[in-house]
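HUMAN: I'm a chemist; might I ask for a sequence paired with its C-alpha cells?

ASSISTANT:
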Amino acid sequence: MDIGTKLRQARLEAGLSQRQLCEGIVTRNMLSQIENGSARPSMDTLALFASRLGKTVGFFLGEPVASGNALCMANARQAYARGAWTEAKAFLEDYQGPDGQLDEEWGLLNALVLLSEAEAVRQRPIYARELLEQVAQFGAKTCYYTAELEQRRLLLLSEVSQDPIALSVDDRPLLYRAKRALQEGNPARCAMLLEACEDRDGGDWHFLRAEAAWLQGEYALAAEHYRKAEQEHPKDCWPRLEACYRALDDYKMAYEYACKQRNLTSEVR
C-alpha cells in the first residue's frame, strides 16, 4: 500500500476532510494529488500530516509502529506541530536508542525541531548558528533528511552568517517558501528568498518578484518583472501592469494594458 492510500485511509479513520487535514500544510489540490499517487509529500510535510493524524512517519513508510519510544515520539510530534520547540526537544531527549523502528524518524524530528527553532530566532545569529550546526548533525543520522531541508538550513545559515552560501540548483523549495511569505504578508522576505534562487528567468519567478515589489510600492520594479512574466501569466499580470503604469503616471502604457484586458475578455465571450 503506497503513502497516498495510507494517508487517505488514516484521514477517513480520523473523520477529517481533506480541507481539515491539509489546512496550514499544503493546498487541498496538492493533498488530492498525494492521495491519488500523482505526487509525493516531502518528509517535512509527511511529518506534519502524521502529527495531525496521530500516526508516526514510519506508519506511512511501511515500518513497524510498535516501540517503547512510541509515547515520547508522539508527544514530541504534537509539541512540534504546536511550535513548542523547547517542549519537543525535552520529549526527544527521553528517547532510548537504538530503536530500529523509530531511530530514523527520531533523527528527522530532531532536525525539524531545531531547524524550525533556528528560523524563529534568526534575530539571535549566534544561537541560530548553533542550532543549525545541530540540524546538520541530526540530518546526517537519518535517510529522511531531504535536499529541501538542507536548502532551508543553508539559506538560513547564509542569512544569519551574513555570508553567501551556494545553494542547490533546485529552486522549487525557495519558490514555494517565497510564495508562502507573500501570502503571509511579508513581501520583503519573499524578495529575499527569490534572490537566493539560481534560476531567475522563469515566469513564476518574475511574477512572484513583481508581486513582492508591488506590495512594497516599488511600481517601476514591479512593472519590469510583470512584463517578463506576462507571457505565462497574462490574466494576472495585465491588471497589475495597468495599475503600475497609472501609479507611475504613464497613461499611455496604462491604456495599452487596459485594452489588452478588454480584448482578452471579448475573446473569452
In short: The two ends are 47 Å apart (CA to CA). Residues 103-120 form the longest helix (18 residues). Residues 169 and 198 are 6 Å apart (CA to CA). Residues 165-169 have pLDDT under 50 and may be disordered.
